[in-house]
Design brief:
This protein is mostly helical and about 500 residues long. The protein has one domain (about 15-260, about 275-494). The protein is about 70% helix and about 0% strand. It contains 23 helices and no strands. The chain has helices at about 15-30, 40-55, 60-65, 70-90, 95-100, 110-125, 130-145, 155-170, 175-185, 200-230, 240-245, 245-255, 270-280, 285-305, 315-335, 340, 345-365, 365-375, 385-400, 405-410, 420-435, 445-455, 465-494. Helix 8 (about 155-170) packs antiparallel against helix 22. The two termini are about 20 Å apart. This is Citrate transporter-like domain-containing protein. InterPro entries: Cit_transptr-like_dom. One of its GO terms (biological process) is transmembrane transport. It comes from Rotaria magnacalcarata. It is a multi-pass membrane protein.
Length: about 500
């Protein structure tokens, strides 16, 4: 891989000090939500990137080089394309119809849990874990409340949505941000065998993910049984007050789906908002829904068929698919793509650009490469158990300190373009994703589920310690199981 973070000369000592200081000072604001100073992850990353330039840790002209790097743009294009496609699926309410069929009244909770786990995992593999939790959590909570289910199921239900979405997102190269990063950046490896492609995920990761998914499902069942035992055998259903005006409150759960009450005194801004909302209503065209399914199947087929002779770009294929949907929507439904474009989470895309610059500044100090070398990970053979355990600990701890996306970028920048890196790429993809289940802050998907539960009519607080009690032990077990299955598969296949 071409290392975009390598400088022509060694950095001065003041650049090393300022670069590391900037990184350390901004990191807490990136990882945690600090109420007193609510910068948010994107704002904090942009501040960090600005400080890297102001402090001359990196040159201002390098900002354009980093942003314009082919692999960085591929990652951003991939995310944008899948966001557009998921927005069309949301608009057509295809997931709503699916849930209506999957969750009838008086369904035993074991069946509820199984169907939530399957749905969450599969949707995450197609539309990313973050988008899945945004779409699925409020819909499942609404259905759960409407059916007046046992309140002791709620905690296990929320854990299932988050953890199984994270696990399922490892099935494809567009399932989560770190998978997309690894896929795009590993494309520059000289050895094609070392690249993370869609068929590589199918060959090496589907079986460990399936086993881990089953074990996590067993843990969820055990968690529910313990909850029943602790709370006693008395039934605990939701009161009528908790169920009051659920339709109105459910609309507030859905991102960017604000309902405006019509009145004679509507101002211009409200009128525009209502017009946008009406344009986002599902179409009555079966043809367009059919095209939606064909497009998502085509993306998977093309990326799976990509090879050295005929290469389908992982960034341009989703973008091309999104543009095809723009055309189809215009010709079939006579609708403009403007409303869809307005609903794209541009905050995420800007976050990626900020992270690229922010981490390039840290990499330019040489500290990450020194740590990597000090742990002997630069020359380690991950076919040996001691070095494998060292990598395991490094990724698991680092993902929950730095967050999995920044850690993934830092590790990828230490890998040379030549050599066989397949085992490292697979371990990195699997462990950074599963590590997201360790704590509530380990994955954005976890935080989304917690936020949706809090803003629902239940106002349920799914806090850090509630999550940690389940996530800590289970993640250690699941990550070790998957790690050794991948190790065995790599040894057996190669």
């Amino acid at each position: 891989m071409t290392n975009i973070t390598s400088n022509a000369r060694s950095p001065h000592i003041y650049q090393v000090v300022l670069g590391c200081t900037t990184f350390v000072l901004t990191l807490p604001f990136v990882v945690f939500h600090i109420h007193r100073y609510p910068l948010g992850s994107t704002g904090a990353v942009l501040v960090g990137a600005l400080l890297m330039v102001i402090c001359t840790v990196i040159d201002s002209s390098r900002v354009y080089t980093v942003i314009g790097n082919t692999n960085n743009l591929k990652t951003t294009f991939l995310r944008w394309g899948m966001m557009v496609i998921s927005s069309y699926f949301e608009r057509e309410q295809l997931i709503d119809h699916l849930l209506d069929r999957l969750f009838p009244l008086r369904l035993p909770f074991v069946q509820w849990l199984l169907r939530v786990s399957v749905t969450s995992s599969l949707l995450a593999s197609l539309f990313t874990n973050d988008v899945t939790c945004i779409l699925l959590t409020p819909l499942l909570l609404k259905k759960w409340i409407e059916q007046k289910r046992d309140a002791r199921e709620l905690k296990t239900l929320l854990l299932a949505i988050a953890t199984q979405a994270n696990i399922g997102s490892t099935l494809t190269i567009f399932g989560n941000p770190q998978m997309a990063l690894i896929a795009s950046k590993s494309n520059a490896f000289v050895n094609q065998h070392s690249r993370l492609e869609l068929k590589t995920c199918v060959i090496y990761l589907w079986f460990p993910i399936f086993v881990v998914w089953l074990v996590n499902f067993a843990f969820l069942l055990l968690h529910h049984q313990l909850a029943l035992r602790i709370s006693g055998q008395s039934s605990s259903t939701l009161s009528q007050n908790e169920l009051g005006n659920i339709n109105q409150q459910h609309l507030s759960l859905l991102p960017n789906k604000t309902t405006h009450e019509t009145s004679s005194s509507l101002n211009q801004e409200q009128a525009v908002s209502i017009k946008s909302q009406s344009d986002y209503q599902p179409s009555n065209s079966r043809l367009f829904k059919f095209i939606l399914f064909i497009v998502i199947i085509a993306i998977i087929a093309l990326l799976f068929a990509s090879n050295e002779k005929v290469r389908f770009d992982i960034g341009l294929i989703p973008v091309g698919a999104a543009i095809v949907l723009f055309l189809a929507d215009a010709f079939v439904n006579h609708r403009s793509p403007t409303v869809i474009l307005q609903r794209i989470d541009w905050n995420i895309l800007i976050l990626f650009f900020g992270i690229f610059i922010w981490l390039d500044g840290l990499n330019s100090t040489g500290i990450p490469s020194r740590i990597w070398a000090a742990l002997n990970l630069d020359t380690a053979s991950f076919q040996h158990i001691p070095s494998l355990f060292l990598l395991y600990a490094f990724i698991l701890i680092g993902s929950n300190i730095f967050s999995n996306v920044p850690l993934t970028i830092l590790i990828l920048e230490q890998i040379q373009p030549d050599g066989d890196h397949l085992n490292l790429v697979l371990y990195l993809a699997f462990l950074t994703t599963i590590a997201g289940n360790l704590t509530l802050f380990g994955s954005v998907a976890n935080l989304i589920v917690a936020q949706k539960a809090l803003t629902s009519s239940l106002q349920y607080k799914f806090d850090f310690w509630t999550y940690l009690k389940y996530g800590f032990v289970t993640t250690l077990v699941l990550s070790l199981i998957g790690l050794f299955i991948i190790y065995g598969l790599v040894e057996a296949i190669n």
